[in-house]
Every structure is written in structure tokens, then in C-alpha cells.
Amino acid sequence: MKIKLTTMALTALMAAGPAMADLVFPSLSYRTGPFAAGGIPFADGYADYFTLLNERDGGIGGVPAKLIECETAYNTEKGVECYESTKDEGALIYQPLSTGITYQLIPKATADGIPIHSMGYGRTSAKNGKVFSHVFNYPVNYWDGASVGINHFKKQAGGSLEGKKITLLHFNGAYGKEPIPTLEALSAKEGFSLNTIAIDYPGQEQKSQWLQIRRERPDYVLFWGWGVMNQVAVQEASNIRFPMENFMGIWWSGAELDVLPAGDGANGYKALQFHNVGSDFPIFDDIKQYVTDAGKAAGAGDQIGTVLYNRGVYAAFLAAEAAKAAQAANGTKEITAAMMRDSMEALTIDEAKMAAAGLPGFGPEFQVSCENHGGGGMAAVAQWDAAAKTWSLISDFEASDSGIIEPLIMADSKAFADENGIAERCN
Amino acid sequence: MPEQIVFAMEVFLNGLMAGVLYALVALGFVLIFKASGIFNYAQGVMALFSAMTLVGIMKGQVPFAHVINVIFGTDVHYFGWTVPALLAIILTVVVMVLFAWAVQKYIFRHLVGQEPIILFMATIGLAYFLEGVGDLMWNSEIKKLDVGLPQGINEAIDNYTFNIFDYGFFIDNLDIVATLIAALLVGGLVIFSQYSKEGRAMRAVADDHQAALSVGVSLNFIWIMVWSVAGFVALVAGIMWGTKSGVQFSLSLIALKALPVLMLGGFTSIPGAIVGGLIIGVGEKLFEFAIGPMVGGATENWFAYVLALIFLVFRPQGLFGEKIIERV
Amino acid sequence: MFYREAGDFKTSYTDDNQTFPIKFDRYRYYVVLAVAFGIIPFLINDYWANAFLLPFLIYSIAAIGLNILTGYCGQVSLGTGGFMAVGAYACYKLMTVFPDVNIFFHVIAAGGITAIVCTAFGLPSLRIKGFYLAVATLAAQFFLVWLFNKVSWFYNYSASGQINAPERTVFGVPVTGANTEAWATYLFCLVFLAISAIIARNLTRGMQGRKWMAIRDMDIAAEIIGVNPMRAKLSAFAVSGFFIGISGALFFAVYLGAAEAGDSFGIQKSFLVLFMIIIGGLGSIFGSFAGAAFLVLLPVALKLVGVDFLGWPTDIVAHIQLIIVGALIIIFLIAEPHGIAQLWRVAKEKLRLWPFPH
User: Fold this and answer.
1) What is the pTM of this model?
2) How distant is the Cα of A108 from the closest Cα of chain C, in angstroms?
3) Is residue C181 scored above 90 in pLDDT?
4) Choice between A247 and B250, residue whose per-residue pLDDT is larger
């Protein structure tokens, strides 16, 4: 058995030899498994944007972009296997799309020299570029999101949250527990009392949690869920007649598929977003023309303009912009992962670049630097209209309370650095 | 009346309702285990598959659309018609009967007489197989299931209890409907097994396969019948749970919620499934209400098992299960 | 004609009692060890290590552990995932609290801690039997996962609840962390597997193994002839816990590098290891290896065939993978309910007579 394996390994090695002439963007997607419904539109958006660049522009800087899709089913081990099988193909950037897989890949990708972009998920303290050289989480992270959410509620409450009760309903795992330190710090500063209620995977049954909310009658509820938890939470909230405008989910709990099952009861539900929603952008006309109508769409073509599809497009846009900048900075079309990393560290996204790509006002303006791998930390609030069945932004992209968040990021990244013996860079 | 006691009463009632929903899932397990000694891990996936089939038929989805599109390059997704709920349910029951027939013919006919753990593993294999087929047939997106069941807080109870306790109880309409349907289902099953010829034959098979064979009962037919009834029970459970959360993969995980119910009530007893479900439902909700906040919450998952374990220590075969007689 | 005992005379009790009395078996064993220790480390690369060899080695240890509990002693346990989590978290705490002690000792200590925990959760087996015990061990599974999620001490109060394995070296070569070489991690796990397999084989061949098998076959009769059921069952849980703990520690520290209790050690793990021992063959050490190889290689092979060779979309391949895995398990159970080990035994029997038919 083992001898057969090694000969297979040898032949595979020899067969996989030649250098790729394309720009390789692996897509660690989950089109199956418990979170498939959320993973499919994102993967479609990511793939469609690169297909558009190839069809319309002939690639990035004339070099075609090659997308290698690998199914992870949101499973950590499969994610690692996908990483190992694609990293030698000349992969430029990894977007693991799962906090668990991101944590796995942080040390591996750093050692292999390939940058990771964990956009709005993953390890929040990776914003500190001094410790995490190869991990980027621009434009925003969970702690920024929590802060922006609190600020929004503060405005809604008339300027002060003193004496209010805020409940964090969260997934009982790494992802759901991320905002707790920030919210605790904010509760000390703003004077509200914080209560956390955990929901165990899969969250199909949330009766206890919502009975507790109904008893305690918090003024506002923040929600950090993913998968079936989202639909059930929105349904239960509408069942107990919780005022939906006081119920806000993080950006992973704010897609169409999360609110449609609840029907009209979900009207007014809010969610944080870090990119714009809807299909009213020139890019989608191009996608329709060059990708969907040409039959090259990754999915069925009906997800264009949905929240998660847009997120996939945004992720691809950021990756493509970094690749373009890398080509310009190094004077060569065939960039390496190291060049990609340097380019990501110097990335600037402004309105001009977004409009040139067909995405005017699609996201916040931000800048990445050696110390700051997380961008400006700006997020907006969107609200669901159940009659029109659309999400729309009800605020601009606003900054978070960095005075609270920066020290927390420093502390967490320092702990990681101490544990793993990483020396600070950028000095 | 002190506030905590009123809250506890609300939690107690909701626990009873939740328990009924668990018991619905557990019923399917009990039926199959009683008649053939197989612990059917695939019951959860059967609930998912039957719910997916129901929604697929109702919406007029083309089965295996994705695969057809990939192989033939077409772009079909829907037939274009929709089927009313009742007719769709009947058609889904037909599909589940076909499934029962296939399972019996291709799998369990060949595994007669094997050890229980082998049969259990076969049902796990069946669960994987059915999940893959279900996903291929009807795709993995979330589908809204609407067969006309009401959802939302029951106003009458809310007002009534508010007048008495100064706090309106939250009882979901869907839970009330589920309880009624479960009662009807259990009643129907009990009448069927006690008073009909096939039901008596099923009980005979559950007692002793050899003896049933010798009096002329067709084992094959009984087993197909039992799997069909279990499939129907799975469909009902799938409809109840699917209405709450939309039909998607996580529906198959409700089987894990039913296992403590089985432990407690005994693997071979239909009333045991109901009583076990009620005890587990009330127990886990009350524990979460009273002790949960002290230990950080989210205790439901494991407390149900611990509760069942405590009962088992005193009655190793469950409350209503058959006493395990060992002969040396 | 080469697989015979004829002409093979033993002249000492030690020789008579050895594990592989037939010469062919012994030489085959030495060759396998030579290839595993001497040849593969030079041929291995990152992808094959991570995709197949490391999981195979680690799951083999877990399968040996569970086989002792379920195959030899007859106590069905679905708590394997939770116990692997105990091994992983124990290893993590030891690594961070005693950073100067070699990781080799930490893994063994993690195994020891898991043995204690497993024994504690094995106490219900004294009263509960059969499937009821299986479902009772699920209590251990869910409780342990909840515990590691909830009590922040276990993950050193990190904001996210994930544990990361810091870099540790053996003889100067890193075996945990990101800068490891494939051959180093492979050899590290192989050493543990070899030692575990030798210990397990000898335990099951000796008096302890016979006691376990007596309990499995008919525990009341065993008690009558003087086998103490409490000692036998609890020792099975303890030994099983030791191996599963080592496997969990290696899984976290060497293979994954970072883990979260609910994500990496959920109930799917328990079912996976149970599959391995049933397909491999209950009550057989070779069966543990065979089952682990089968279930680790199968998804990788299916993915290679489906995506790389046929170019189908990844989700269809993933669904077909599920279908094929399910179908293969069922077909296997129908064709050979006693697992690959039975096929191996039958093959050996035929080989002993070859070239004669009977």
C-alpha cells in the first residue's frame, strides 16, 4: 500500500511540474455541507468577477486569471487539504471563507509565503501587521462591526445608551465569541448592561434563547450567527414580536436567504455590511453581458445583486486590484505570492478605483499599511424591506471606536506573538 | 405569584411542546427498531429527504437539475407548475414507500441476522447515501416550506395568561399544531398496531421473527410497511421542523436531539418515545432556565444526554423499554 | 509454499510465544517497518503527508484505541471525538505551561490524562449495555465539547476560543508549528504509531486481552469464571483513552496546528473512527490500520478522480463522494461484515495452503 503510494506521489510530482503562466486565485468554497446556502453565492460572485475580467479585459494586465475551486464543505481538515493541493500551483492569495480554516492556515501560509485575506472574518487581531505579516482582514473586522452597531443603536436611542440593556445572541464558537471583549469594553464606556446568550451548533432550535430574550426584554439585540441559526433566529424574533428595528445581525447574518423564510415578520431587521447591496451597479451589467449571457456563470445566474454574491464580487475586486498594483509596482506581468503580499500591504482603495471598476460607492475607502492590515474599520447598516424583498443601506460607511479596539488588538496579537515566538516587524 | 415561578411555568409548557417535536422524530426510530432490531441512524436524513422532496414537488423543481445541466449543457430548473400542498404530501408518501421498498430489497434483505452494530453502520452508510442523493436531486439551497401551518405567538393564550399572571405566556401556534398532529399520529399508530391485521403482524414480527414466519407472516412485507410508516413519520417531523427553519441540511441533525429521548423512553416503546420526549423537553429547558445562566448557557445539547444517562443508570433499558434478559 | 509452519521449529518458550510465529509474517513485518522508517521519509512531500499519510497514522492510533474498547471489550463508544479533544487540549495546556519539556513527553502525558477522563466516562458501562451505552457515550462527546468551548482556561483566555500549537522541536527538528518538514512530522507520528501498535498487540494477546474478549462475548459467564467486570471494563476504557488521547494530541499539534473543540472534534469524528474499526474489522489490530487507510484514502481518491481527472463542478463531486462513500460502506457490510481483517485472514489461510487448493 505504502509503496504504491510513493510511486503515485512521484508521478504526481513529475506531472505537476511546469510553471503556470496564469495568475492563480484558489477559491476555497463550500457548495455542500451545512453552510452551503451561504457559501454558494459567495463562490459564484468570486468566480464570476474573474471570468468577467478574463472575458472583457483578457485578464489582469493581459494575463488571464485562473480560478481553482476546491470544496471544503466548511470543514477544517478539507480546507487544509485544499490548501496543500493548490499552493504549489502558484497560488497568489487565499480567502479561506471560514474562521476555523483561517486559523489553521495562518501559520502554514505565513511559512509558505502566501498571503491570506480573511475579509470580515477570521482572526480579528490579524489587523496588527507587526505580528501577522501574511494575514490581512481589510476593510473591517468583527470588533469594528460591534462598535459600529453600538454606535448605530446609540444614535437610534437619541445619543446615549446609559442604562439600556443590550443582548449579544451568538453562535457558541470562535466566530460568535469574537465581539465579546469589545462589547464588554464598550458597555463600560457607554453605560449599557451587556448580556450574552449562546446558541449551540446547529441552532435549529432556539426556543430557550428567545424565551429568555422575551423575559428579559433587552432594548437591543446584536446577532452573530451563521447557517440555519440565522433563519431560525429571525423567525423566532418575529414570533415573539420583538421590534425588528432593534435587532441587528453581523454581516454574516444579513443575507436574503436569512430573512426570506420568515416572510413579512422579518420586515425592519437590520444587518451590518461592509459593502453595498443590490444590483444597481455598472459591473452587474457587464457581468450579465460577458458572463451570464455567454453561459459562463458559475451558478444559475439568479444570485446577482444578492448580499453574499456582492460580497464575493467585492473580495475578487480587492484581490484583482492588489494583483494589478503588484504588476505595476514590479514591472512584470507574472507576479509571485511575495509580490502579491507586498502589494496588499500597500493597497489603497478609493472612490476613483471603485468607480473605474464599475463599483462606485460599493465599499468604504481605506488604506493598508505595514502596521495596519485591517483598513479603516468602516461599516454601514442595512435594513430589510420584506414587501420589496430587498436590502438597502440606511447609513453611510462609518468608522468604529478605535480608542477601544486598538488596545484589544494589540493585547491579543501580543499574546499570539509571545506564544509562538514571533518578533515584531515594521520597525 | 413570584415572577420566577411564572417564568418557570412558561418554560415548562414550552418544554412540553419542544418535547413533542423531539418525540415525533424519535417515533420513527422506535418503529423500525421494534420491528427489525435496526437502529436507524438515517431517520434524520429521511426527514430531510422527505421534506426536500415535498418542497421540490410543490415548487415543480426538476429532479437532478444540476447534474442534467452539467452533462447535457441545458439550463433547466423548474417544470413551471406548482402542486398544492395536500397532493404534494401524498406524492411524497409514495416516494417514501418506494424508498422503503428499495432499502429493504437492496440492503436489509442481505443483512438479515447480522449483529446490531453492523446493521447500525449500514444505516449510517444509508444516511450518507441518501444525503448525497437528496442534495443531487434537489440542490443544497434553503427552501421555504409552507404547507399552511400557522406560526407565531398564540394571541389567546397570551392574553389569557396576561390577565391571570400579569405576564403573557409565549406559546407558538406551530407547536400547538404539532402537538395535535403528534397526538393524532400516535393515536393512529396505536389503533393500527392493536386493531388491524397488519398491525398485529407487525407486533408479532417485533416479538419473534421465527415464530412470526411460522404462522405465515411475510417478514419482507412487514419490514417494507414499517419503513414506509417510519418514512411517513419522518415526513411529518420534517414538515414541522422545516416550517420553522426552512428545509436545509441541518434538518438531518434533529436525529441527534431524538437520541436522548430514545435512551430515556426505551428503544422499543411508542408511548415511551412520547413520555421520554416530554421529560427531555421539559428537563433541558428548565435546566437551561435555572442553571444555564450560571454555567454560561448553551447547555441543552449535552444536558439532554446527561438526563437520559441518569435515568438509564436506574433503569438500564429505559423507562418503557423491554427488559433485557440475558441467558448464560 | 513459502507460508508454512512446517520445518519451523521453536526451541525456546520465547520463540514459541512470539507474535509472528511464521517466518514469512515476521519478514513481512520487518520489510514494512523498513519501508516505513527508511524509504518513505525520503520520498514524502507536503501534499501526500497532509492529505494521506499523517491522517492515516493518527487515525490508526485512534482506531486501535477504539478497537480495544469496542472490538475487544465489546463496549460501543461514540465519544471518540470528545476524548480526542481531551488529548488535544491537554497537550496544548502542557505545551504552554511547560514550554521547555519535550513535546514527546507532552503527548504521552496527554494520553495519560485522557485515560483518566475516559475511565470516568466509562463508569456507566458497569450498568448500561449495548446501544444504550453507545448513546450514553454521546453524553461524554457533547459535554466535553461544550466544556472546552465554555471554560476559557482551556484555551488560555484567547478571544476566539481556538488553540494554536506553538513550534516545538524533537532533536532540533521542528515537528509542530508551521515550519515543519513533511518527513519530520511523518516520522514523529510513525514512532507513536509503532509503539502504540506493539503495546496494543501484546496487551490483546495476553491475559488482559483475553479478559476483555471474555467480557465481550458473554460478560455474565466471564464474571462467573472470575473475570472482574469492573476492572476489565474500566481498564479497557483506560487503555482506549490513552491511545485516543495520543491520537488527539498528535491530530491537533502535528496535523492541524490549530483547533476548535466543536469544529474539529465533533460527533462526525466519533462516527468516522467507528466506521474505521468496523470496516477494518472489529477485534483486530491490522483491521484498525486497514480501516483507517480505507477511510482516509477514499475521499482523497474520489476528489482526485472527480475534480482533477473528470473536471466536474466541485459540489457535484462532493455529493457523489457522499453517495459513493455511503454505497461502499453498505456494500462492504453486505459482502464482508467482519471487515477487511477477515478478508486478510481468509487470504492468509488460503496462502498457507497454496498452491494446493485444500
Assistant:
1) 0.88
2) 5
3) no
4) A247
